[in-house]
Amino acid sequence: MKTSLIRLRAMMIAAFVFGAALVPASGAVGQSQWLAFRGDGGRGEAMKSKPPTEFDVPAGKNLAWKTATTGRGIGGPLVIGDLVVVTGCDGEDERDIHIEGFDAKTGKRLWIRSMRSTGRPFTHPTSANASPTPASDGQRIFALFSSCDLVCVDLQGRLQWFRGLAVDHPKAGNDISMSSSPVVADGVVLVQLENQGDSFAAGLDAETGETLWQMPRSRQSNWATPLPITIGDGRPAFVLQDGSNLMIVDARTGKVEHDFAIKCDRTASASYAAPLIIVPGEETVALRTDSSGVEEVWRSNKLRPQRCSPVIADGKVYMGRGSVLIAGNLVDGEIAWQKRLPGVETVWATPVATGSGIYVFDSNGKVALVRDDGDTAEVVSEPVVGESILASPAVVGDALFLRTERAVIKIAEPATEKS
After folding, report:
1. How would you classify residue 186: left for phi > 0, otherwise alpha for psi between -120 and 50, otherwise beta?
2. pLDDT tens, 158-206?
3. 103-154 pLDDT per residue, tens
4. Which of 162, 223, 249, 390 fits a 20 to 30 Å CA distance from 323?
């Protein structure tokens, strides 16, 4: 482990000296589009973006637009070019499910695709059938619902394929919700549907919806989202976590490449900034993956999140614990600072790090914007959404895209809208 830490320090020093970041070469994509839960690598960062530091949705301050959605949802928005996509649900027991596309500039609804659940739609009041965040490969949208229905539409909302996964797995589901989000890599859509009944993970062909591989999983409720990474010489893979294990599998075949006995969090999901995977759990564990394999670099029982997932940006790992935001050094996990956030109590949405600061969204609609000053932090503003927000935000350009339970919102300065 000591050797690994020395190697990692050397890599980070080289990255700063030569102007490279400790993220994949595609890291800048997160600023031009937002294609999955927490964006590229699940890092929750868009450091080249500078959204407004002040906004008040009820008062209209820096509110570009707000559009009501069909039904309610707590999955985050996607931004694909000029298209904003969210999911929703309504009707009896939230059995009616919807995917909606909006114009990113005006907020006008462009299309809606509505269907009927085939599985169990029952959820907790703080959840929804439209709980998972959808994912996209830039050509198609993959929307998974708590009822284990997986819908694929194109960017015009036209149905490409549909899988009622509860038809093949009738005991899949629970009464709290299945909120693990789908992810995409190498033409494969991965769903991780873990519960106390028929628990499984499956890789499906992104073009056809055909099952490419499937594996049984631990019969324990798990809401963490899997993570696309690369291993070896750049081969696409997925990270799957549960309460007792972390597994890395080949994206195309599902073959288990690495297996670690780690007590992972069952709500907060792992994040990836190559070559590191940051795994939240009983202890936060950092794993390094490169051509030589995968090995542990550090552990920390102080740097741990509560519900929301780790954010990685500018050599730091940020963890939200209710009213406190904690920053740790990415290289060794040592705590850099802790900051108590005024007005923030219960946080479900994963924060997002931007060039303006780190936005932390309380479930009651309050926001804290935190600036990292290196060894300390400062709350620079307390923006207001004004209604419940449980979904993690998207950041594209210099705009924030928010999904409240019954609306989608764009936050941007007026000058940004004119440009």
Report:
1. left
2. 999 999 999 988 888 776 778 899 999 999 999 999 887 888 999 999 9
3. 999 999 999 999 999 998 877 777 899 999 999 999 999 999 999 999 999 9
4. 223
Per residue in 392-408, pLDDT tens? 999 999 999 999 999 99
Dihedral angle computed from the Cα positions of residues 199, 201, 204 and 209, in that order, rounded to the nearest 10 degrees: 20
Alpha carbons 405 and 66: distance in angstroms, whole number: 12
**366: three-class secondary structure by DSSP:** strand
Give the domain CATH number at 314: 2.130.10.10
Global pTM reads 0.91
Q: What is the full DSSP assignment across 108-160?
A: -EEEEEEEE--S-----TTS-SS-S--EE-SSEEEEE-TTSEEEEEETT--EE
Task: Please report, rounded to a whole number, the percentage of residues in the chain having pLDDT higher than 70.
Answer: 91
Q: How far apart are CA 197 and CA 174, in angstroms?
A: 8
Mean pLDDT, rounded, for 308-337: 96
53-81: string of b/e by CB count within 10 Å (b at 16+)? bebbbeeeebbbbbbebbbbbbbbbbbbe
Q: Which of 369, 366, 365 is nearest to 406 (CA)?
A: 365
Q: Which residues touch 172 (CB under 8 Å, ≥6 apart)?
A: 119, 120, 148, 165, 166, 178, 193, 195, 197, 198, 199, 200
Task: Please tell me what DSSP assigns to residue 334.
Answer: -
Residue 15 domain boundaries: 2-418
Beta-sheet strand order (sheet of 284-290): 271-273, 276-279, 284-290, 293-300
Distance in angstroms (rounded) separating the CA atoms of residues 167 and 144? 14
Three-state DSSP state, 373: coil
Number of domains in the chain: 1
Q: Which residue has the tokens 């789908």?
A: 182
Spatial separation of the C-alpha atoms in residues 283 and 298, rounded to whole Å: 10
